[in-house]
Amino acid sequence: MFFSRGAVVALAAALITGPAVADTTIKVGTLLPENDWNAGQSDPVNGMYELFKTEVESKSNGEITVDIAYGGSLGNPDERLAQVRQGIIQMTDAGDAQYANVYPDANVFTWPYLFPTEEIAWEVFDGPIGQEIGAGIRDKAGVHVFGYWTSGGFKHYSSNTPIREPGDLAGQKVRVLGPLFALPVETLGGSPTVVPFPELYTSLKTGVVDAQDNAVWVFNIAKFYEVQQYLILSGHIYAWGVLGINAAFFDSLSPEDQAILTGAAETALAWNRQASQELEARSVAFAKEQGVEVIEIDAAAKAAFQEQVRPAASEWLKKNVDDPGLVDRILTEVESLS
Asked: For the chain, what are the domain ranges?
């Protein structure tokens, strides 16, 4: 067989150097725009992915790169999670509702009035039940779970009527998303109403709905302080999401690269939680500066809300999760930490 001189040189070079090793790219899709909502500071979720990127690229000497697509450019949260599951992208900031849709047992983390403090929520997320839910998400959704992030801590109600005790929600039309968010409203005599977020400001302004719930920083960036007189620190549902990656992609990496990603995730999650707490404190102060009356819910009042809502929420969860025993187990764990 005859080989040209050029072919011989190329073959020799390949034998000496071996095949070229392609760099690895992790594509991430997020909801919020890049650094444009708070004087150049990233929110706790985008900032978490940015720190993850810095850690991964540094520790891998640039052999692994992280490409973040901001502003929902890759679709809505459900679409982005579907892309992760299909391996089109590797990571996204899909949150509680999206993961509960694909793995119903994750609904237990969204149980109204379950967590008395953020610190207890974190202990549960990082503990046996968090690991159990993570394993289920990997098995059912194909997402390897590094851990759980938060986007500003607890969700709180806002309204044009003060809410200080359970009866104060009666008769109010409250914007909610999903059945677990509707349960507290229904149980306390309100009318849960589904309104897409882009329409919420106008709906509050025109009276289509009277109240809504979100983390305080969301209340501020959406300028709800222009159309809502009261911010009630009800802390009724904890806002969480999954820092995860397509499981097949993660499994394809070397043990060394897997360790780099896992370490970067731990660093990013620790930052996220601290940044989230700091953000909530700043956000409450900012809302007050805009003329909003902030109503603190003391322990006794919160217990009254919890007492009325918990039975209905427990019943709903036991009918809608795959493992009804999980409902009692998470409650027992929270009570043991309280």
From this structure: 5-337
Of the candidates 124, 283, 271, which has an alpha carbon nearest to the alpha carbon of residue 218?
Answer: 283
Q: What's the pLDDT tens digit per position in 139-169?
A: 999 999 999 999 889 999 999 999 999 999 9
CA pair distance 217, 281, nearest whole angstrom: 9
* Alpha helix ranges (H) inside the chain: 5-17, 44-59, 77-86, 96-102, 118-126, 128-141, 179-187, 197-206, 216-221, 247-252, 255-289, 299-320, 325-337
What pTM was estimated for this model as a whole?
A: 0.87
What would the 3-class secondary structure string for 160-190 be? CCCCCCHHHHCCCEEECCCHHHHHHHHHCCC
Q: CA neighbours within 13 Å on the CB side: how many for 47?
A: 22
Residues 294-336 have pLDDT tens digits of 999 988 999 999 999 999 999 999 999 999 999 999 999 999 9
Sheet with 143-159, edge to edge strand ranges: 191-193, 173-175, 211-214, 143-159, 230-246, 293-296
Residues in the chain, total: 338
Whether 194 contacts 175, CB under 8 Å: yes
What is the distance between the alpha carbons of residues 298 and 165, in angstroms, rounded to a whole number?
A: 10
The answer to whether residues 30 and 227 touch, using CB atoms and an 8 Å cutoff, is: no
Residue with tokens 């982005």: 80
Options 3.40.190.170, 3.40.50.300, 3.30.430.20, 3.40.630.30; CATH for 5-337 is 3.40.190.170
Residues 185, 176: Cα–Cα separation, whole Å: 9
Closest CA to 236 of 120, 96, 116: 116
| R_g (Cα) of the chain, nearest Å | 23
The helix or strand, by DSSP H or E, that contains position 236, with its residue range, turns out to be strand 230-246
Measured N-to-C along each axis, helices 299-320 and 325-337 cross at an angle, to the nearest 10 degrees, of 160
In the numeric block, the tokens 């998400």 are attached to 137
Average pLDDT over the chain, rounded to whole?
90
The stretches in the chain having pLDDT less than 70 are 1-22, 36-42
Helix axes 44-59, 255-289, angle to 10 degrees: 150
Q: Which residues partner with 230 through β-bridges?
A: 159, 293
